[in-house]
Amino acid sequence: MPSTFRSIHLLATDAGVRRELADYLLDKASFTVDTIASFWQNWIVDPINNILKTIRHDDTSKIALMSQKSLDSDLQSLERMVLDYVRDSQSDADIDFAALQEATRSGDMTVVMSNYERDLKSPVKSIILGDMVRNILIQIQKTKVDGSLALNGVDQILKSQELVFGFVAASPSLFILWALKNSFMSWYNGESYERSRKSYMSQLQSRMSKSLGTVEKLVGFLVVQERGGGVCTFSNGESKQDYYKNGLIFIELKHLKALASQVLPVYMLQQFNEDLEDLIQQHHSAEYKLFTVQRIWNVYGRYLR
Fold it and tell me: Its membrane topology, per UniProt (predicted)?
């Protein structure tokens, strides 16, 4: 506690401390806002945009392990290397360049490999005087093209599943948003329901209190009458107001029973109804009924206010 009071005192008296606290709070607020904005842009907006681009077949959205022109460039380079090699090693009259180019494009390196097999018979001589090094370099380029073809196959698989990858990328963030939305709505609806329930219960309690107060007032009139107040009577000695006031009491008691089923706990309803029945029994005196009303106030009063 002393440290708390000391901190409060410093905040109240030291402008530097207040400024540092304000800067700290602003920094944290800025960090929080930037984090939320980055999350929204990078994990919500961008993945959804990628999904929409994929659905629209937008070429800029396609994922790839290699550039779209890389394979064509490597293959064209191999074709030129093979054509130049064959042109330099054989006479042009014996070469069908169109067929050779098509064979190279389809991966047929028969001409190059046959020359390579011939050079292997005298490798040292072929390396020094022949084209064996050039042949090896062509095969290296062919290996590079084969690797590019393999990557292109994987690339096509990725492109065919791009929409799936887009949904997978967006799913975690969308799930987080969905969970936050449900949590907020549950809290909001719970708070709204609780406020509505409390307001409704307050209205019911007010109506019960008013009704029970009316019963108490009517029973009070009966008590005064019973004690000898001046009232008109029938020939049998009963007051003209007895039936009227008892009828009003009966109506209020029916009203109280209906309200009690919504306000009182279930385990108290039977006892409450029995107490109400005592108020309509004709053989009970008015004073007994008044005591019964007071007992109801004492026992159930905390549920009526």
Answer: Multi-pass membrane protein
